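Researcher: Quick sanity check before group meeting.
Model: Go ahead. Protein one:
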Amino acid sequence: MSAKQRTYILTQLSERELELLGANWTLFAHDHQMPPRLAPNGAPWLTWLLIGGRGAGKTRAGAEWVRAQALGLAPLAAAPMTNIALVGESEHDVREIMIEGVAGLLAVHRRDERPDWISSRKRLEWNNGAVAYAFSAEDPESLRGPQFSCAWSDELAKWRYAQETFDMLQFGLRLGSQPRQLITTTPRPNALIKRLMCDPTSVVTHAPTRANAYHLAPNFLQSVMARYRDTRLGRQELDGEIIEERSDALWSRALLEKCRVTEAPSLARIVVAVDPPASSSKRADSCGIVAAGIANDGAIYILADDTISAATPSVWATKAIALWRRCEADALVAEVNQGGEMVKAVIAEVDSTVPVLPVRATRGKYLRAEPVAALYEQGRVKHAGHFTALEDEMCDFGASGLSSGRSPDRLDALVWAIASLSFGAHAPPRVRSF
C-alpha cells in the first residue's frame, strides 16, 4: 500500500483495533529486534545477544521478548514462562528503563494484559501466573537461590560485576525444557561479551542507531553524527561496534602479546603492589593487587593479578599478604593517598612482619602510567601468563581514563609495582625462582 492508503485505513479503525494492531510486535519489529531461529550449531539458541547503538531499539526488543515469554506469544515463545529474571546495571535502571520506561515492560502491554508492578517486592505479576523478578548487577549474590525459565539482561557491558552476576544467573536458569536468555547491550570490548559472541549456542543481532531513525528526533541524529562520526566513541555508541582497543590507549593488544612469556626466570626482587579503595561499600572501587619481579638483567615480569572487589580493609590486606607469601616477595608497595597511616596499620594488623613501602601519588594516573608504558615499548616488561582483566584495562586506558569512567585499579597497582622495581630504590638482591 501507499502511505496515503495506509493512513486512510488506519483512520477507519477503532481505538480498540488500533491498540490490537499496535500490540502485534512482529508487524513493526526491525530484523535486528527478532532473534534467528537457530544457533550456528544448528540447534535452538540458548543466548541471544542484541548489540546495538544508542536508540537502536534494544529496550523495546527486550520488553517485547519478555512479554512474549510471559504470555506464550508465537513466534517468540511456544508456551508461557512462569519465572523470569530481569537483570540491569542497578535497581534504578531495572525499574526506570526495563519496567517503567517508555519502551519498558509496562508500556508494551495492552491495558487488559498489563502485569502489576509490585515495587516493594521487586516483581511483576501477570494474570496468568507468570512472574518476573528484578535484580541488580551490583548485587550478584541476590541471584543465588532463585530459579528461572528465562532471563533478560540489559546493558551487560556496563555491569560493575559482570562476570560474577552472569555466573550466578546461569546457575538459576534451570526451569523448563530449554531456559533461554536475551542480553541487550551497547558494545564494549569486555571478555565476557566476546566469549558469548563466539559461543556456538549464541545468536547475535546487531544494529546501529540509524536503523531506528524513524523513532528518534531528527536533530539528535544530525548533531551526534556530526560530532562523533568516525570517532572511537561514535563507532561504539552509535554504530554498535565492538572496538577491541582505544586508539589513544597507552597499550595495545599486539604489544602485550609480544611481551608474553610462559614463565618468569629467577628474580632478584619481587614486590606486591596494593592500590587500596577509598571505602568498602558495594559501590567502592576495587583494591588493585598485582605482583611483579625484576631479573638480574633488569627485565620486569608481571607474576599475578589478585585484585579484589568491594572488600573491607582486613579482607584486601589479607589477600595482598597471601600473594606476598605465595610469591616470596620482598615488600608490599602500598599507595597511601586514600588512607595514609591507616593503610600501613591495616596491613600490620594482619601481619606486622610484612615490610610495607608506602608510595604517594603526586601526579595524575595517566602521567604516572606513561613511563611504565614506555618500558613495555622498549621490551623491558614481560607478562608471565595471561591476565585478562588487567590487560583489558591496559588496552582501554587513555588520557581520559577508562571508557567506562571507572577507576583503573588493576592498572594502578601494576604501575606502582613496575615503578617501584624500575624507578625506586632497590633492596639488596635476593635471587630466587618463581
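Researcher: Fine. The other one?
Model: Protein two, sequence then structure:
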Amino acid sequence: MLAELLILAPSLASYEEGRLEERVRAAELASLAVEASPDQVVTDTLSGELLNGAGVVSVAVQSEGIRRLLLQGPPMKRAPYLVDLRTQGPLGWLFQPFRVLTGDPAQMVRIVAKPSFRDGDFVEIVAPQIRLRRELTSYLLGLLAVTAFISAVAGVLVYFSLNLFLVRPMQRITASMERFRANPDDPGARIAVSFRRDEVGRAEAELDRMQADLRAALKSRARLAALGEAVAKINHDLRNMLTSARIASERLALSGDPSVAAALPRLERALDRAAALTSNVLDYGKTEERAAEPIVIPLLAAVEAAAEDAGLSAKGVRLEAMIELHDQALADPEQLHRILVNLLRNGREAIEGLETPRPGLIQVVSERDGDQLVLRISDNGPGVPERAQTRLFQPFAGSTRPGGTGLGLAISQELALANGGALILLATSGEGAVFELRLPSA
C-alpha cells in the first residue's frame, strides 16, 4: 500500500500531462482547419463546433514572433492560470494535479506547448478546469481501487506465506516444547527436524539437540539420585565403622609401642580423608541446595569464624583480613560460611603441601564495586597448576592435591551463584593464587 501511494503523485501528474497534451493536439488540429478555410476565417457555428470538439475555449499560435488568435470563445470572467508544458519543472509537474483537484472548478487553465503538426514557436489554448478535474478524479478513484486490490492480494499472499513458512513451523516447535515439558520421556515429543537452512531450521535443530541433551541430563540426574540414596545408606554404615576405627586408634595410641606411634598419624589421616570424602560426596549428591535465605552479615566476623574452622592460626598459616568494620554482605550465613571455609582451607592445605616450607599467609581484602562487595582471597602457596585451571570448578575433576575430591570449589561456586554472586580464579602463579568472590552488598 505504501509503495502504491508513493507512486500516486507521479501517476496523477503523468495522466494530467497526457490529458493536457491531448487538448493541445486537438486544438492544434482545429487551428489547421481554420487556416485551411478561405481567408482563414470560419463562421461562429463552425468555430464553436471546433472549440467544443477540442474541449477548449480559445486557440492561439505564435510563429516567427507573431501571435495569432485563431479560435476564440465567449469572454472569460477570470484570468486563467498558466501551465507551460515546455518549461514545467519536476515539483510543478508533481503538484499540478492536486492544484486542479483542490482548486475552483470554474477556473480556466492556459496551456502552452510546442506544436506537433505545424511549424511555429508554440501553441496556446485556454480550457475549462472542471472537465480536467472530473477526469483526474475518476482516474484517482480508479487508481486507489487498483491500489487497494493489489494491497489486499499482496496481504493475503503474505499472510498465507507467513502462515506456511513461519507460523505453522513455530506452532510445531511450540507444541513439541509443551509436549516435552509435560513428559520428557515421551518419544513423540521430539521435534521433527525439517532440515531448512533458515532460522526456523536452525531453531528446530537446536531444539532437537537441546531435547536430547535434557533427556540425557535427566537420566544422569536420576542415576545420580539413585547413587546418592545408595551412598547415604553406605555413609551411615561407614561412619559407624570409622567411629570404631577411630576409637581403636585412640586405644592404640595408649599402648606406648614406638612402631604403633609411628604408624598412627598415617592411620588418622586416612580416617580423616575417608570421613571428609563421604561428607563431600553427600553434600554434592543432594538433589539441590536449599534456597538461599540472605540476611545482613558483618563480613569481618564471617571471615574470622571461617578462618578458625579452616585451621588458620597465628602459629601456622595465618590470616590477614583487610576488611572494613562496616562492610556487610547480603547472603545466607550458613552457605557463606561454607564458601569461605572451602577457600581458606584450600589455601592452607596448598601452603602446607609445599616442599620448601615458607611462612604461610592468606590475605582477604574487601572492596565495593557498585552494589556488590568484592572479596579477594590470596595465598602464598604454589598456585594452581596449568593443567587444573580449565577444570578447576568441575566436580571430581578440579582437585590439585593428592587425596582431594575436587568438590569443594564446585560446591562453593554453586553456592555463590545461588546467593546472587560469583566465584572465579582471578590470578595464579608460582607465588600463590587469588580467588575473587562477589556478593551483594548490604
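Researcher: One line on it for the slide.
Model: The CA atoms of residues 145 and 372 lie 64 Å apart.
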